[in-house]
Amino acid sequence: MTELKTFETIPDGFWTVPVTGLKDLLGGPSLFYLKGAREPALFVSTLLHGNETTGFEAVRDVLRRHIEAGMPRSLWLFLGNVDAAAEGLRFLPGQADYNRVWPHTPMTGLPEIALMQEVVKRVTAEPLFASVDIHNNTGRNPHYGCINKLETPYLHLAALFSRTTVYFTEPRGVQSIAMADHCPAVTLECGQVGDASAHKHAVDYLEACLRLHHIPDHPIASGDIGLLHTVAVVKVKPGLSIGFDPDDTDISFRQDIDHFNFGRMPSGSVLASVKGEDMPVYVTDENGNDITDSLFDLRNGLLILREDIIPSMATPDARVIRQDCVFYVMEQLGVAHLPA
User: Fold this and answer.
1) Global pTM?
2) What is 5-224's CATH number?
3) Cα separation, 8 vs 76, whole angstroms
4) Residue 1 has pLDDT above 80, yes or no
5) Within 13 Å and on the Cβ side, how many CA atoms surround 270?
6) What's the distance, CA 212 to chain centroid?
7) Is the CB of residue 37 less than 8 Å from the CB of residue 71?
8) How is 153-214 classified by DSSP, letter by letter?
9) Which of 49, 175, 197, 293 suits 77 as a labelling partner, its CA being 20 to 30 A distant?
């Protein structure tokens, strides 16, 4: 098992260390408990992907504000893949994705699974106020929250960050699905790394959570939330080269692919040019069914949409496409899906 480092104080050097230096400073994945004026504690995780740094920078600024006078609420803080952060990567070769190995993951036998089980065991030994997992995207996306239960506290927690909220049940090994068993849980998608507005948005949200007396229990108003549901994921088949230049790779995606995120990509749109006659992608719905043929057609070397879709997290980064996916497919959910 990868050893979990634990802290109840902030170590020297924390306030100035670059994210690439956390591995040397902390020694590995690290869990902090900082006692505050109010219980139960808020749980915050970040750096589950080592190159998504907005969460770390934001939570450090929040801690800096309160470290002398004391935290408004007790805080559990998990800094995840500091080894990958040292290299500026999502995860290292040979590592599992730190946001695919939490309880409920279908994977087995990995040291990262045992690590996340230990984190969950420690932070849930006492009741929690809420769980917040902070991420960035590599493509153009609005700031939005993700939840895994269509229940009132979860919806309010997401709407506190953004009106745009995505409900999903796959992939199952993510932090928010694991933590949703124990408390209201949300994933924050904070746009691209280095965006000053994303940093401020994350800081303001964490401050609000630390100071919030309680999460509202009244039904959320339909005008306060725009709810979408992730229904499928698009991935490239193993062994194919991926790029954005049709002369260089087996599948070459359009360079503006991320411009369609959270908008509508119409039927007939060309997604990519393809070498060879075999379908280069596969699409699975949230139940694991293959729905590739209902969504895509391959004609004259072009990958073409068969129907209108709403994509999210489409990226112009070939490495991320290989490690994760091309994009997720969403549908809009109406008022009928909100709890009364």
Assistant:
1) 0.96
2) 3.40.630.10
3) 10
4) no
5) 13
6) 23
7) yes
8) HHHHHHHTT-SEEEE---STTSHHHHHTTTS-EEEEEEEETT-HHHHHHHHHHHHHHHH-S-
9) 197
Non-local (6+) Cβ contacts of 102 within 8 A are 116, 120, 173, 174, 175, 177, 178, 179
E strand or H helix at 318: helix 318-323
Q: Which two tokens stand for residue 225?
A: 């939330």
Helix (H, G, I), strand (E, B) or coil at 45: strand
Give buried/exposed letters for 254-293 (b at 16+ CB in 10 A, else e): beebbebbbeebeeeeebbbbbeeeebbbbbbeeeeebbe
Q: Where are the beta strands (DSSP E) in the chain?
A: 5-7, 30-34, 41-46, 75-79, 128-137, 144-147, 164-167, 185-192, 226-236, 242-243, 251-253, 270-274, 281-285, 296-299, 302-305, 310-312, 327-332
CA distance 123 to 102: 13
Q: Return residue ranges of the chain for CATH 3.40.630.10.
A: 5-224
Residue 171: C-alpha distances to residues 78, 106, 107, 130 (Å): 21, 9, 11, 21
As given in the structure block, the two tokens for residue 213 are 């007396």
Structure tokens at 138: 């590599």
Cβ–Cβ under 8 Å, residues 95 and 63:
no
- Tell which phi-psi region holds residue 9, choosing left (phi > 0), alpha (psi between -120 and 50) or beta: beta
Q: Helix (H, G, I), strand (E, B), or coil: what is residue 82?
A: helix
Burial string for 23-46 (b: 16+ CB within 10 Å, else e) reads beebebbbbbbbebeeeebbbbbb
